[in-house]
Amino acid sequence: MVKARVAAVLAAVLFAVSPAAPALAANPYERGPAPTTSSIEAARGSFATATTTVARSAVSGFGGGTIYYPTSTAEGTFGAVAISPGFTASQSSVSWLGPRLASQGFVVITIDTLSTLDQPASRGTQLLAALDYLTRTSSVRTRIDASRLGVMGHSMGGGGSLSASVSRPALQAAIPLTPWHGTKSWTSDRVPTLIIGAENDTVAPVSSHSEPFYTSLPAASDKAYLELNNASHSAPTSTNVTVAKYSISWLKRFIDDDTRYDQFLCPNPSGTAIQEYRSTCPYS
Fold first, then answer.
1. What are the tens digits of pLDDT across the range 225-280?
2. For this structure, is 233 an active site residue?
3. 2 has pLDDT over 80
4. What Cα–Cα distance (Å) separates residue 56 from each residue in 109, 111, 115, 139?
5. Is residue 18, in this structure, part of any structural domain at all?
6. 201 an active-site residue?
7. Which of 23, 126, 142, 157 is least enclosed by beta carbons within 10 angstroms?
8. pLDDT digit string, tens, across residues 137-156
């Protein structure tokens, strides 16, 4: 009986002085409620948003644009995304993505380029200039976590997002939309990249653009290729649920490190809107 009591006392003392096992820290970058298929397909997410216009005369390195941002910072700062239009186009061609992404918990800038005829490499440089403006001098800079940035773009703007990724490997995500670029090999690109091509694209046919771009990305990289079924080159320039849901999922997964969105990316998604999907899933 005495031995039993001594043992009990010793056990109690050891329990009291032993350090507790550390609790697993929650992801500090998660923003918004747990996602569902409905929430990523919805026209708007859970965050109320506002916009501010950036005059061409007020910036250098790109042609101005529009910033879309969540109005509340109660959950903390946000990752940011710059989006470029394509050849001959203005920011209006990608503007639908602004409020859609911002309402999911990102600061977004859709840009005008210095010239509508700018080539992809120049558009890449301008995307980076827009991110630098957002994080350093814009009126919303205090809402942004400058370590969590991404780029997107349509056509030559999509090619620009590839160029930007090579120039700045610290980017967290890139989404080229029906991209066009004269360079076909991107073996030095290490940024997690989702390429969205279109089956019936005659401007940037997937066989000579999106597919070789994807194939050339390092095999060890986090990458995916989504081909829109029966879609044209201009598919990403107007509201498109498939483009939106997988763009949101990709940005959440890699800018916010939010593994709650893995379910929409792994295993490879399928459906009537998707002609083909390839990836290196599961992601690191």
1. 999 999 999 999 999 999 999 999 999 999 999 999 999 999 999 999 999 999 99
2. yes
3. no
4. 13, 10, 11, 15
5. no
6. yes
7. 23
8. 999 999 999 999 999 999 99
Within 8 A by CB and 6+ apart from 68, the residues are: 49, 50, 51, 98, 99, 101, 102, 107, 108, 109, 110
Q: Which two tokens stand for residue 270?
A: 């399928």
Note the pLDDT of residue 10.
42
- pLDDT value at residue 26: 80
CA gap 107, 77 in Å, rounded:
9
Is residue 165 domain-resident?
Answer: yes
Q: pLDDT tens-digit profile of 34-68?
A: 999 999 999 999 999 999 999 999 999 999 999 99
For the chain, how many structural domains are there in total?
1
- Residue type (1 letter), 182: G
**Domain contains 42:** no
Domain assignment present for residue 11? The answer is: no
Give bridge partners of residue 82 from the DSSP assignment: 109, 151
Between CA 216 and CA 98 the distance in angstroms is 29
From 38, 62, 86, 55, select the one nearest 232 (Cα to Cα).
Answer: 86
pTM reported for the whole predicted model:
0.91
CATH code, domain carrying 240? 3.40.50.1820
pLDDT at 20: 44
Catalytic hit among 145, 189, 201, 256: 201
* Edge-to-edge strand ranges of the sheet holding 65-70: 49-54, 65-70, 106-111, 78-84, 144-154, 173-177, 193-198, 223-228, 274-279
For 79, the domain range is 49-279
Residue 67 has a pLDDT of: 98
Identify the active-site residue in 163, 181, 233, 249: 233
State the Cα–Cα distance between residues 119 and 117, nearest whole angstrom. 6
